[in-house]
Amino acid sequence: MKARHLLLGLLICSAFFVADAVASGHEAGSSEGSNASPSEESVGRSAPDALRILEALQEQQRQMTNELRSVKREIAALKAAVSEPDFKDILGGIGYILGVFGIAFYLHARRREKQPALRPD
Amino acid sequence: MHLSDGVLPTAVAVGAFALTGLCLAVSVKKTNGDDLPKIAVMTSAFFVASLVHVPLGPTSVHLLLPGLVGIFTGWSAFLSIFLGLVLQSFLFQFGGLTALGANGLMMGLPAWCAAWIFHQFRGRSAAVDIAAAAGASATAVALAALILAGLLATGGEDFFGVAKIAVIAHLPVLGVEAVIAAFVVSFLRRVKPELLDVPMGWRGA
Å from B2 to nearest chain A CA? Predict the structure, then answer.
């Protein structure tokens, strides 16, 4: 989520930068005679600023991407750990097996009780 | 060595279910009620064995134990293994539900085969017994790998390619299981040899 905000901010910033450049170009074209207009001066100051901000933002984004990657890796590891059977599953499974065979054995024994001919003694 | 959902074509999966049902019926029919506790223990062992992983390079394979189950339960082995597979599928998400039929065949038939081999050679001498147990166990694992390759071949895979990979990947398991079976049988034939008395005849039960 943070990365998306960052990306948006970067986009807006770059949009301003482009708009600024276009505007200054337009102004330069319209007033060719006077080369020391106040707007051009301000552009001259703000362009390095914007570049610096852009670089800072890009650096931040790189860091965020790295962090995000490590988080994603952690999530994948967690998912693998969750899907792995734990002690409870194992005990539960053995319990099921013993239970099923216990019932089967009980039925077998009861049938045997009812048929004295099958009794071992 | 568990097939997942959607690996096999539907027709093969359904056919495998039918065949497994048939084998299951035979297995239940041939099961002697007095042997149920022993079968329960072997089922538990089979159920847990797949959690014992043998590291193999970057990946790992797990124990299968169809051979040992077959040796101790004879005809009941199919029932035992099928129940173990059902619970593995439910509790561990090993193998898909729709592939249960195919997985049952893949593990159950080798178990029967191992039982047949072992009881064919059994009773001559200690060395023969132990060797038969090891051989039967190893054969069961190899057979399981071959059945796996055969099942995958129905899904369009190249049989010999898959078979080669499956057998090679399970060579360590094959060896480990042969050793385990040899130890277990050599121990039990001294301590409680009647555990190894399993009626294998078609009629006797």
Answer: 15
Q: How far apart are CA B151 and CA B147, in angstroms?
A: 6
Interface predicted TM-score of the whole assembly (ipTM), two decimals? 0.84
3-class SS at A113?
helix
How do residues B55-87 score in pLDDT, each as one tens digit?
Answer: 766 666 788 899 999 999 999 999 999 999 999
CB contact under 8 A, A97 and B83: yes
Strand partners, B62: B53
Q: What does the pLDDT look like over A13-35, one tens digit per residue? A: 555 555 555 555 454 444 444 44
In sequence order, what are the residues at sequence separation of 6 or more whose Cβ sits closer than 8 angstroms to the Cβ of residue B88? Answer: A93, B2, B47, B50, B94, B95
Q: What is the pTM of this model?
A: 0.74
Q: Which residues pair with B56 in a beta bridge?
A: B59
Q: How many residues does chain A have?
A: 121
Query: Which 80-99 residues of chain A touch chain B by CB within 8 A?
Result: 83, 85, 89-90, 92-94, 96-98
Cβ count within 10 A of residue B139:
21
Euclidean distance between CA atoms B51 and B64, whole angstroms: 9
Taking an 8 Å cut-off on Cβ atoms, the answer to whether B39 and A89 are in contact is: no
State residue B152 phi and psi, 5-degree precision.
-70, -30
